[in-house]
């Protein structure tokens, strides 16, 4: 039986080899399209369409692919002919959708070039600047693509997709329509799945640990706000209360209930942002209520005190310099403003770290969503730049889930399918007027 099984497998191996030899030339000659580009880019970083083989030699394409693999970055390069199979409109977006992997995509279409990236990998401004810098009239594809790759690799974020294998793999450059049969597909798919599963399990363990720390801090905040409500000497039916005051009071109560219910439903660290945002809304409502009752001008909407959001809305800005960092303006409550003016330390919010209680800006990335809900994504980077928390949130390992970047779930190199911002890959004119449809790019 064993001899018979070996014979069967030997015969099958010969049949597979014969099919590869017979079908590959036919497949190379057939018409190709975006699905072929995407299928090839899932297997390797560089794709040269048969119709554009004269633009980039096999040796140049292989060297370019190896350079990207060695850097372990999710950079995808396609060299395509300018024909009806690849209409310029939405080409980048369509290639990104079909490939389904978060990354930076560069396409040479005929003698024209453009690129687009998921913003978690590279900002749109950075992509535009790189594209502009490498576009030169009459430059050949090899020079243009190598210039782009050399400038992009050091600045982009993320890791190469598991489906590419390792940098040591000598897989060459994909050819459109090359038939990869059952055993190869199954083996490659199993290896890729194992890598992806390991990465997911590691990320899930990190998220659980981060969420455990976040629960302690957020529960303290919710409790503190509830105590403020209990101490409030206001009753909706009291003498002098009007509808505006009652509305402020109701909004504060609603914020408290919202924070509790949202925290009870939290399963991922980034979801904590909505909880602290609700608490910030509630404290502002109490500040407005206090102003109405004391017949003072209503306060402007300001972020909470940077040093401890439990202090309530900030009253003014003060220059503050973190240890080892540069000076910056931060929003502070009146009490902390007075302390700084007197040369004293502010009353900082401390949290648990492996080294004991420390101010939250000297803690790990777990506290990014907590701070992000209070200060918002636009304000937070400027407040935290140069601090330990700010530095950790700026790295690709933490940018998405723990409060930096755009708070998305997918990192560079992750399979995200069609779940991406289409604006990152141009609008209807592909590249926002500087892409393949003309309008100034070429």
Describe the structure.
47% of the residues lie in helices and 9% in strands. The chain is of the alpha/beta class. The strands form three sheets. The protein has a four-stranded mixed beta sheet, with helices on both faces. A two-stranded antiparallel sheet has the order 5-6. A two-stranded antiparallel sheet has the order 7-8. The longest helix is centred in the middle third of the chain and has 50 residues, at 182-231. It is elongated.
- The shape is elongated
Seen as an oligomer or otherwise, the chain set is single chain
Topology order in helix (H) and strand (E) letters: HHEHEHEEHHHHHEEHEEHH
The number of E-state strands comes to: 8
Strands across the major sheet, in which order?
A: 1-2-3-4
Round the Cα radius of gyration to an integer and report it: 28 Å
Count the DSSP helices.
12
Largest sheet: 4 strands, mixed
| Beta-strand fraction estimate | 5-15%
- Derived from helix and strand composition plus strand pairing, the structural class reads alpha/beta
Compute the average pLDDT: 79
Share of residues in helices: 40-55%
Model regions low in confidence, pLDDT < 50 over at least 5 residues: 1-12, 15-31, 166-173, 175-186, 395-401, 403-409, 427-442
Termini gap: 66 Å
């Amino acid at each position: 039986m064993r001899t018979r099984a070996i014979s069967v497998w030997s015969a099958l191996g010969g049949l597979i080899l014969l099919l590869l030899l017979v079908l590959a030339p036919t497949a190379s000659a057939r018409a190709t399209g975006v699905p072929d580009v995407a299928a090839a880019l899932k297997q390797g970083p560089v794709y040269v369409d048969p119709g554009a083989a004269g633009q980039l030699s096999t040796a140049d394409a292989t060297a370019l692919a190896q350079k990207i693999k060695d850097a372990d970055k999710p950079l995808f390069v396609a060299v395509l002919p300018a024909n009806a199979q690849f209409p310029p409109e939405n080409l980048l977006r369509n290639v990104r959708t079909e490939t389904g992997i978060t990354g930076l995509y560069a396409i040479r279409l005929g003698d024209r070039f453009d690129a687009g990236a998921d913003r978690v990998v590279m900002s749109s401004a950075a992509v535009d600047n790189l594209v502009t810098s490498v576009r030169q009239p009459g430059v050949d594809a090899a020079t243009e693509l190598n210039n782009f790759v050399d400038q992009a690799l050091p600045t982009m974020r993320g890791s190469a997709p598991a489906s590419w294998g390792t940098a040591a793999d000598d897989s060459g450059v994909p050819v459109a329509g090359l038939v990869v049969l059952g055993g190869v597909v199954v083996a490659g798919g199993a290896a890729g799945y194992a890598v992806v599963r390991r990465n997911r399990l590691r990320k899930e363990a990190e998220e659980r640990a981060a969420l455990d720390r976040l629960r302690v801090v957020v529960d303290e905040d919710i409790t503190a706000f509830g105590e403020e409500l209990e101490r409030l000497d206001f009753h909706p039916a009291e003498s002098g209360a009007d509808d505006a005051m009652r509305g402020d009071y109701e909004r504060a109560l609603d914020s408290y209930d919202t924070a509790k219910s949202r925290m009870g439903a939290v399963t991922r660290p980034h979801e904590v942002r909505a909880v602290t945002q609700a608490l910030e809304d509630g404290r502002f409502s109490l500040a407005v209520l206090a102003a109405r009752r004391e017949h003072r001008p209503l306060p402007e909407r300001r972020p909470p005190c940077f040093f401890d959001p439990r202090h309530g809305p900030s009253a003014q800005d003060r220059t503050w310099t973190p240890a080892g960092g540069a000076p910056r303006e931060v929003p502070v409550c009146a009490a902390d403003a007075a302390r700084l003016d007197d040369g004293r330390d502010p009353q900082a919010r401390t949290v648990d770290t492996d080294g004991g209680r420390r101010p939250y800006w000297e803690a790990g990335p777990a506290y990014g969503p907590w701070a992000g809900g209070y200060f918002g994504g636009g304000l937070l980077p400027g407040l935290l730049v140069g601090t330990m928390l700010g530095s950790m949130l700026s790295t690709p390992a933490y940018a998405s889930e723990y409060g930096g970047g755009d708070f998305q779930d997918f990192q560079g190199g992750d399979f995200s399918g069609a779940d991406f911002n289409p604006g990152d890959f141009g609008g209807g004119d592909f590249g926002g007027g500087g892409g393949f449809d003309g309008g100034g790019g070429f």
